[in-house]
Every structure is written in C-alpha cells, then in structure tokens.
Amino acid sequence: MRPRINFLLTTMLLASFLMFDQSNAQISLPKLISDGMVLQRDVKLTIWGWASSGEKVEIDFLNKKYSSVTDKNGNWSITIPKLKSGGPFDMVIKGKNEIVIKNILIGDVWVCGGQSNMQTNMERIRDLYESEVSSASNEKIRQFIVPQKYDFNQPRKDISGGNWISVSPSTIQNFSGVAYFFAKKLFERYGVPIGLINTAIGGTPAEAWVSEETLKNFPTHLEILNEFKNEKFVNEIISNNEKISREWISNLNKIDLGYASQRDDSLDFFENINNWGEINIPGFWDEQGVGKINGSVWFIKSFAVPKSMLGKELKLYLGRIVDSDSTFINSKFVGSVSYQYPPRKYKIPAGLLHEENNEIVVRVVNNIGRGGFIKDKPYYITDGEQKLDLSGEWKYKVGAIVNPHPPTITVHYKPTGLYNGMVAPLFNYSIKGVIWYQGESNTGKAIEYQSLMPALINDWRKNWKNKNLPFLYVQLPNFMETNSEPVESQWAELRDAQLKTLSVPNTGMAVAIDLGEWNDIHPFNKKDVGERLALAAQKIAYSNKKIVHSGPIYKSMKINDNSVILSFENVGSGLMTKDGKELKYFAIAGEDGKYVWASAKIENNKVIVWNDEVKNPKFVRYAWANNPEGANLYNKEGLPASPFQAGK
Length: 648
Description:
By secondary structure, this protein is of the alpha+beta class. The protein has twelve helices and 36 strands. The strands form eight sheets. Strands 1, 3, 4, 6, 7, 8, 9, 10, 24, 25 and 26 form an eleven-stranded mixed beta sheet that branches. It has a six-stranded antiparallel beta sheet with strand order 11-23-13-19-16-17. A hairpin with a 2-residue loop joins strand 27 and strand 28 (563-569). The longest helix is centred in the middle third of the chain and has 25 residues, at 231-255. The radius of gyration is 29 Å and the shape is globular. The termini are far apart.
C-alpha cells in the first residue's frame, strides 16, 4: 500500500499546484499590443490575449469599459467599436493583474511585406537622404519590426519580440526606406497617424509567405513544406550548413598566405609590394588577368592626404565588393562586410592618417563566381566636403585559391515558414492595407508567379477577414547591364506577371522601371518608390477618384496595315516622352515572334508602332529587358508607363 499512497499523494499535490498556478495566471498580451501602438481607425478593433481559464478581463479605454471572460484554454478577445483618429491615449487592461498600455495613437496601419528592398533601411540609403535622416521627427509615424521567425508546422499565436518606435533622428535609420516615404506622404496628405508593421526578409520568395492551405494549389511547394515539417530534418540542414561554411572558411584562412604572414614574421607575403600585380579598381578581377578564382585576393594602395583633411574623422567608401572584405588603413582594421550587397562605408578615426605614405589594404574573399569591385559605385575618402579618389591603379596578390563554396540550403526561404512565423500572428490586428516589394527571388518562375501572387493576396485577405483589403505592390525596377538588341528577359517576364496581378480587385502597382541601378539589386531611390505607392494608396485605399495614381498601363492593340496602334489606361493629362525625344524601347514582331526595334510615336494619346521590315505585325513589346535604360513613355503627371507585351 505504501507505494500507492505515496503515488496518490504526489498526484494530489501536483494537481493542486497546477490548479494554483492556473488560478494565478497573469494576463499577457501579444507583442503588437504594447506601448506606442497605432490602432486602425474607423473599423471594429480586436484586443486579445491570454489569462487563466474563466478569468474576467476588462478594458478601460477612452472612458468606456469593455469586458470578456476567457475560454477554457485561457484565450480572450474583446471588440472595441469604431474609433476616430487621434491620441495619444492610454489603455488599462485588468484581470487578476493590471496592464497599462501607454501612448496609443489611432490612425492607419499598413503591413509592409516582401524581401530586401522593403527591408532596406534609411541608414543604408542615408547618403542620398542625409538631410531627411538628420532632421526626421514625427511622433505620429511609427514602425514595428517583426523579428525573423519561421515555423513549418503551424501558425504561431504571437511573434517573438519587437516594439513600436516613432520617427526621430535617433530612430529613423532603422525605418524601411520605402515604408517611411510612403507613410510620410500619406501623413502630409491626410494628417492621421501612420503605423507600419514591417514583416519583410531579404531574399525570400513569395511562397514563403503563403499558408499551407493555399499551397494545396501549388503541389511542388506543398511537397517541400511537408518535407520541412520534420524538425530533425531541418536541424540537420542547419547543422550541415554551418559545418560547410565553417570548414570552407577555416580551410581558406589556413592556406591564405596573407593570413599566414600575420602569424609568422618570417614569411614575406607583404614584402616587395612593388613586385605585386597591378589592377584597376573598380572592376571584376577575371577581366584583368587575375583569373577566375575563388578564394582570397589582397589589394593595396598607397596615397597621400591633403593637410586640410588631416586630424578629422573621415569616411571611407569602397562601393560594393564581391563577396566579402576586411579593410585596414595604416595597419588598423576599419571595417568588414560579410556578403556582396551592402555598400561599404567605414569610419576612419581622426589622427589615423598622415600627409604622406598612407596605405589601405583590402582582403577580398570570393565564394563562388566572379570576384571584384562593382563599377559605378563610390571609391573615395571624404571629410564631407573634399574627396580623395581611390579608384584607379592598385597592387594585388592572390592569398589563396580554393574550390567554390559548396551550396547551402536557406531554410527560411522554404514554403509557408515565414507565413506561420511572421504573418499569421498579425491577423487579429486590424489594418488599412498592405504594401509589398518582392519578386526578385521569383524571377525565372514568372508563369507560376501569375497565379501565386493573386493566391497570396487572397490568402491574406481571407485571414484578415477583409475581401477588399488594399494590396499595393512595387513592380521590379530596371537592373543589370543594358542590351543593344531586343532580348528575352526573366525580369521582364516577372514584371509582366506583376502587371497581370492588377486584375485582382483593389490592387495597385508602383512602376519603378526608371528607379533602379544597373549595378545594384538594392537601388537607393526609395523615396520615389514610397511616394508612388502612396499615390496608389490614395486611389485604392482612400477612394480619391480624381488622382492620377499610375503611369500609362497597356489596355489594347489594333493592327492597321503595317503598324500597331496601342491604347492605354491612366494617360492622365496625356502621353509624353520624359526627355522630349522620340519614343524608345518599343520592339515589334511578326508571326515568327522575332522582335526587332520599332519606330513609335504618340498620336491622340495612343502610341503607333511600326517597322518597315515587318509587313504583318502581330506582337509589340515595350521596355522588355532586364534594364530598359532610356525607356521614356510617361504621362504628363511624370509617371512612367509599365513595361508590357501586346498580342500574346
């Protein structure tokens, strides 16, 4: 009997402990419902959270009280009637404990989704908007950054952290550039508080942001999701990724002669620098005799400094480098970036430089493909007024040659993971709409994207319980080198898929074909992008019927003998060429589908396209290229026409 009695006593004690623990559970709230939050105006609001089973929860807000009782699992939610914009206000939530949420604003809340061009913050583009960054201050524009978190098995109830931050000179650097300029323009127009929920992650494809239910229409992605539901499988991938990278880097560092000379003074890697090879920077090194190598290359340049720049803290610009760099000046480490995309901007401490015989040393590690310094980027030292040019001749020496970095699997790019971890927890929070900047990671799958993006939009609308939720997105900008002849282009195909997404009701598209940079997948001009999204918002979300919110959008075509007559929507005050010259980047094809450049002219707000060599035209393309630099069809409101193909 003794063992049984002890077992019963233990069980009773444990049960009483659990009952005691539950009865004393504290009210807890999702991370979004916190100090500084912006609540959506003019809609019913849900405030929700968790407490003990059967506990009464009361909200005191704007001199009114609302209450509810938790269900058996401790969940509770309270509906608050529609509110007008205003604030700041405080909210008191009471149960067995009391929580006071301070500094609440009521205005418009926008979810900001996508990949790195939505993530790109004001600090990264600061050089283009220095005065904006240094003087930014607006208590009524606030951002909440959703931390990166994936889950392949189920939608999460809450995000893992974050807080609401308002715009100030000390915080603006962390605001999404696109989202900030979007919010600023809307605030200027309507004067209501703007809340930005930033849930974007660099490099992510669209399928990472849709639900498992939606993936049932995309069986290939659903199969991948089912594979990644196995936590052991995922952990093995992560462990293997870490092992691959660790071993590759360790081996590189081990055999790098430049590194070895730092460990052993008897080695002469840095002796007789005059005997090193010569190379012009910027440029890829396989173009200049270094060879198509993976591994490390060391670069050195000697330079003098004007007396007027001495004794100051200076800034070093080293453009963009493929892939990673470690940079030293006069033997002092000044900075490093571990991958190719961010601009290199390093501080040079005051007093480090002298008038003559300064030396900059850059170790570049190339993982795979072509290594080098990206052209048409800044390479100089500056005090803010003077610039010391660093482009031109440098010395170089190969440190190590290794095999390319083996491929790894980026787990959080896989289907549904980010939807479960970073979108699903937001659905109870009422919003005005969504702005979206994504697509780079889906180039090559444009046909799928034509159905995937509408599915994503409908997925989000269903879960936000708003079938008309405004969804505004950015069409991919111009990128990469230009072509002298008409070509096929995966980026153009993806833009065309984005154009077709406008068939989904209550969507708007910001055309960015003139806002890119040939040498940077993250172009700096985020102000025009944000403001074009704000134009779309005024039309779609704020019902401004008079505003011209977009550039010309292809509508229809008519063949007239040997020419094609094109009609457009959103002509505004009329069609024009931006530079006042002849229309560029129109191509025409006959039945064979072989495109050649075409002449084009504007007539009665239509575009007439022809080429005397094409007697029976069937197809027309405009700005159909990775980088259709010089495409110049606009409306008189100054907004560019979207690229398109007609006849297919």
